Amino acid sequence: MTGQVKDERFEFQAEVKQLLDIVIHSLYTDREIFLRELISNAADALEKLRYQKLTSQEIVDGDLPLEISIELDEKNHTLKISDTGIGMTRDELVTNLGTIAHSGSRAFLKYLAEGDKKDVNLIGRFGVGFYSAFMVADKVTVETRSYQPGAAGCLWSSEGTGSYTIAEAEGLRRGTKITLYLKEDAREFAREATVKRIIKQYSGFVPFPILLNGDKVNTVQAIWTKNKNEVTEEEYNEFYKYLANAYDEPLLRLHFSADAPLTINALLFVPKDNFERFGFGRLEPGVNLYCRKVLIQQQSKDILPEWLRFVKGVVDSEELPLNISRETMQDSALMAKLRKVITSRFLKFLQEQAKSEPEKYKEFWKNFGMFIKEGAATDFTHRKELVGLLRFSSSRSGEGELVSLKDYVERMKEGQKDIYFINGPTKEVIESSPYLEVFQDQDIEVLFTHEPVEDYILSQLGEFEGKKLVSIDQAALELPGIRKPDGDALNPEQVEELTRWLKEVLGDKVTEVRESRRLSTSPAIVLNPDHLTGSLQRMMQVMNKDINAIGPKVLEINTSHPVIKRLCELSRRDDSFARLAAEQLFDNALISAGLIVDPRAMVHRMNQILEKALQ
Fold first, then answer.
1. Taking a C-beta distance cutoff of 8 angstroms, is the pair 88, 146 a contact?
2. d(CA 606, CA 615)
3. Which of 89, 93, 88, 86 is nearest to 44 (CA)?
4. Are 437 and 521 a contacting pair, CB within 8 Å?
5. How many CA atoms lie within 13 Å of 506's alpha carbon, on the beta-carbon side?
6. CA distance 386 to 20
7. Three-state secondary structure along 437-492?
8. pLDDT of residue 326
9. pLDDT of residue 121
10. Cβ-based neighbour number of residue 183 at 10 Å
11. What pTM value is reported for the model?
């Protein structure tokens, strides 16, 4: 500025005074937001100038580069932000900075006054981010010159109280320069390191160069707005490293745009490692929400469901209605729609990956399958898609091979009605389980689950593609084939006698004792009389710290097994040793089911059995 004339004082409109008080004292949760607002306004001014260049021949200083410049002066505690955008005339200064033209703003202020309410998140969509400067500044000046030929330069000045002044200013270039005279408790905003951090966090992808004390700060491009064909693999990887603060490349990447039902540009990544799996604490959401390349929410908790917290990336939508601070979404229904669109598209992407790159999906499942299970257990909206992404080992799968429910159904035996599953800590443990014997005899595939949440999901699902999902440790199981006892088995009268005696000995530990049609090599097996699977009962035992939290069982005995036949002989004499053997037989069956038994009672009983055996 080289000179000024006609210094004229104006009173702020009453609504502006109210608004200033709200902005300065209670609107923003973090004062550093002021810089994002001012940079956003500068970018808007540059965008408007770029449009004018396309439609108008006469523009002042037409050769000026379109850029934003920030100058800091720590000694004098000032921050200056300037742009070479569209600028303002004197009348536009009065209209834009001295009054509120939108009736919605008045209505909001009236709402605040009438109810004495402090819910600033309800503030409507009007561009008053400029006033946030007064959160950190005692005084603000605006030097501006419009792009229109013949328009005079102007100087606007205010201390954010009741009035402002406007004077003509000579020697100005096109655009706007805002100078903030920082408050004593806000002098950190004249430090280069502080301002550089804020720019990178909130405004790093503004589509115009931002120069801080002459050096360009926003060096990473907003590649999510580009066409996929325009972005190289190296650019994707570098962007991911910048965004996720990572050193390695991502495992998976989804880049897409949509026009309906919402205008969306999204770039999402799946990392290679899941540190939550290794016990490093719960992951924070990793997707940032932008509107026209300006950060709205970092690590947004609203844009994806909780079970997708492992995803890193950016979602940008021009349709987001924002409040004055750009910190809270105005329309929760719109956010819900946006979340559903993004989530559905990401799940579709995972389904495509599972088909086209099964080995890579297997790696994804190994690291991130826990989140898919979490979603399938809790998210009813997307359960169908999530169930299709579940993977299991099975009695037919080879080492490291994974099976989907769809794979299982496609290779079911002719006439098979149900999908069978069983839980156990490892594949090897399950394969040695007595529950598998009849299925191995009949060559029928059984899915293996290893966590209670998997049993919960399958039990809640109930069926898949018209086939019932059945845990094979259920007493009411309709067996795929019945194994008949061999000729050396107990006869019906002996079976009747032994089962009655076992029921008497075991008491309320069992609801029923019966001859088994499913065992071939094991002497006995315990089954669940209700629909609670063994894994859920094991979890209840651990959670309740109660070994008796399993409830009574159905005991099935293999009447061809030597142990059972010998026990039948001993039971007729009501031998005390027979009673010990019966109780141990039941505990052995519980252990085979993975359930916890009282070790003190069992050790004492085993010592008694050893004593008898050694006599």
1. yes
2. 14
3. 86
4. yes
5. 27
6. 49
7. HHHHHHCCCCEEECCHHHHHHHHHHCEECCEEEEECCECCCCCCCCCCCCCCCCCH
8. 45
9. 37
10. 16
11. 0.75
Q: Which two tokens stand for residue 57?
A: 């021949």
Question: Each residue of 343-384: pLDDT tens digit?
Answer: 999 999 999 999 999 999 999 999 999 999 999 999 999 999
Helix (H) or strand (E) holding 418: strand 418-423
Secondary structure letter of residue 508 according to DSSP: G
Question: How many residues are given for the chain?
Answer: 615
**Taking a C-beta distance cutoff of 8 angstroms, is the pair 421, 463 a contact?**
no
Can you tell me the distance from the alpha carbon of 577 to that of 606, in angstroms, rounded to the nearest whole number?
A: 11
User: What is the residue-averaged pLDDT of the chain?
Assistant: 86
In three-state form (DSSP H/G/I as H, E/B as E, the rest C), the secondary structure along 129-180 is HHHHHHHCEEEEEEEEECCCCCCCEEEEEECCCCEEEEEEEECCCCEEEEEE
Q: What is the mean pLDDT of residues 121-150?
A: 77
What is the spatial distance between Cα 370 and Cα 391, in angstroms, rounded to a whole number?
11
Cβ-contact 331, 322 below 8 angstroms: no
190 neighbors 74 (Cβ within 8 angstroms): yes
Cα 527 to Cα 457, 460, 467, distances in angstroms: 20, 20, 22
**How much of the chain exceeds pLDDT 70, in percent?**
87
pLDDT digits (tens, 9 = 90+) for 300-317: 888 999 999 999 999 998
> DSSP strand E in 311-387: where?
312-316
